[in-house]
Amino acid sequence: MVKVQQEKRTRFVVLAALLGTCLLVVALHYEARRRGSVSLPEEGALAVLTPLQGTLTQFAFTLRERGRSIRRIGEIEHENRELRKQVQDLRNRNRRLNAKYEENIRLRKLLALDLEVPNEAVFAEVISLNTSNWFQRVRLNRGRKDRVAPKDVVMTDAGLVGQVIDVSRHTATVELIIDRESGVGARTMQSRATGVVRGTSEPNCELAYLDRDADVRVGDQVLTSGLGDVYPPGLIIGEVTEVHKDRHGIRHSATVKPATDFARLEDVYVRKGLRGAE
User: Fold this and answer.
1) SS3 of 187, please?
2) For 110, how many CA atoms within 13 A lie in the half-sphere containing its CB?
3) Which of 195, 175, 199, 176 has the alpha carbon at shortest distance from 185?
4) Helices H, strands E: what count in the chain?
5) Domain segments of the chain: what residues?
6) Is 184:209 a contact under the CB 8 Å cutoff?
7) What percent of the chain has pLDDT over 70?
8) pTM for this structure?
9) Is 24 exposed, middle or buried (0-12, 13-18, 19+ CB in 10 A)?
10) Domain at 121-278, CATH homologous superfamily
């Protein structure tokens, strides 16, 4: 803004000087024509002023073009601001569309799972998360009115989530398999080694109580065994990522990475009426 004002002042001074010079040159020419001759002082003045007039004219032209450039720069800056705003609007719209797309993918997977599930089941959304050093639980937007009950099994399209432990009319509380209070009877798909998947309140679980000679290896798939009164057999829990044995071979356990991504848990599937073997 200051630069534009300075440019205007400079242009005004140059134009005033140019106008004054032009008037002086015209006056000298007029006086010379009136007398029919040019005096020596007038000839000297014209010799000085005529080139100066050309210089001032060129300078005025340069200033005019520079003024146009400055105005154009202002217009370009305004256009850039508008374009940046449009780009930000498009980015926001793209993020919203991506979120809708991901939600659509999740729902399609759950719908595909629905075709495979013979038991009555309902979709649900996670509406709150309750985490502490010991407890890992979520609340769903389904409850008694949807015939959800304690011990109902909760899943995603990827695998096991946990079990319903408390129900109100409109909501249900789910104990996740990563909760320290959680214990799921499990077996490996490859060697059929059995144990209990326990929560650690961390992203991974522990496959405990393995037989000392159990053939458990990294990469083994871990499924529910059906032992207990909650989980039926064959539900996907996760994958073995580490195997642990002490020097004496007494303690044998494994680290299991859950198939469900609990950090991004949004939509789940409540499978009602499923029970394990008591």
Assistant:
1) strand
2) 21
3) 195
4) 2, 12
5) 2-89, 121-278
6) no
7) 65
8) 0.60
9) middle
10) Rod shape-determining protein MreC, domain 1 (2.40.10.340)
